[in-house]
Amino acid sequence: MQGKRALVVDDEKPGRERLRRLLIRDARVMLAGCCAGGNEALDLVRSAAAAGNPIHLMFLDVQMPEVDGFAVVSALVEHVPVETMPAVVFVTAHDEYALRAFEAHALDYLLKPFSDERFQAALDRAIRHVKAGHAQHVMTRMQALLGGVATTPLRDGTSSEAT
Question: Domain range spanning residue 89?
Fold first, then answer.
């Protein structure tokens, strides 16, 4: 199985480093990068999507200078095709953003300091979500392709409508 591409975005180096260490321990994940700010993350997500190597998971700090985590998600929703939108797990030391994070469709909300077990639960949930979304995207594309087939030939030479 190909690893899901993950991106860490945190303006604090110790936070980035901890997430990086936790992610590289999991064979289901390939670390695509670590960013210190929102603009850098936006550039990386956009360029990865354009290159056909989308970021699947993003561990995103809420409070960052210049571009905060919510602004990153908002920009991605506006400028990245839905099929390449990464699943977002917000990571922050501030619990007051939790409701807003889930309103922004975050998959999870890691409150610093978090345990390795709590991180693992968030990662497991995110990977399940990405796999389910990928399967849905494949099914949608297959249905679109099959929708273009009006009839299918039968062995006796007649035809039948495709379902």
Answer: 4-151
